[in-house]
Write a structure and sequence with these properties.
By secondary structure, the chain is α+β, with helices and mostly antiparallel strands. The protein has 3 helices and 11 strands. α1 runs antiparallel to α2 and α2 crosses α3. The longest helix is centred in the C-terminal third of the chain and has 18 residues.
């Protein structure tokens, strides 16, 4: 279970820092800071079946798409993703961006982030262009359908195939 201050580092240089863990809010929300280098690996377009996700830019500029409409957010600006809305984000600004993020209710989002970080680390993935990232990302993401899942068939089907490969790789011989 994540604690305030826990930091989950990803191979692309991104860091996800827990500010208010779900347990401290009665699972009403989880609050994190996303520290995203330019060119970080964005999550595939996805939906949260029961959560509202919110972003507030602290530093830099951040791009988010909600239901196909891209917006660039600057410090002090925010965006809210309604339950079930297809979305993703990226940082192509040329500099690091820091974003405050909330998921309401918390669901298992902090658990998902922690599992993603530990899975990639256990696989020995150390760089953002490692071809194994989509395999492991798919396997972990599809284990959390109550929290997030690929929102379009064109991502969902390949991710199911990649997840099956990822699960085989994680299984002890």
């Amino acid at each position: 279970m994540a604690q305030a201050g826990d930091r989950f580092d990803m191979p692309d240089g991104s860091a996800y820092i827990v500010r208010r863990p779900a347990a401290s809010t009665g699972h009403e929300l989880v609050e994190m800071d996303f520290v995203l280098p330019s060119g970080c690996v964005p999550p595939p377009p996805h939906v949260h079946p029961e959560q509202v996700e919110e972003y507030e830019v602290i530093e830099g500029s951040f791009e988010v798409t909600i239901d196909g409409e891209w917006r660039t957010l600057h410090p002090g600006e925010s965006a809210s993703v309604p339950v079930g809305a297809l979305h993703t984000f990226r940082n192509r600004s040329g500099s690091v961006v820091r974003v405050r993020n909330w998921h309401r209710p918390a669901g298992r989002f902090e658990e998902f982030i922690e599992r993603m970080a530990t899975t990639l680390q256990a696989a020995g993935i150390r760089r953002k262009r490692d071809p194994r990232i989509p395999v492991h990302l798919s396997a972990v993401m599809l284990d959390y359908p109550d929290t997030l899942f690929p929102g379009r068939r064109r991502e969902r089907i390949p991710m199911q195939v990649l997840a099956a490969i990822g699960r085989r790789l994680r299984r002890p011989a």
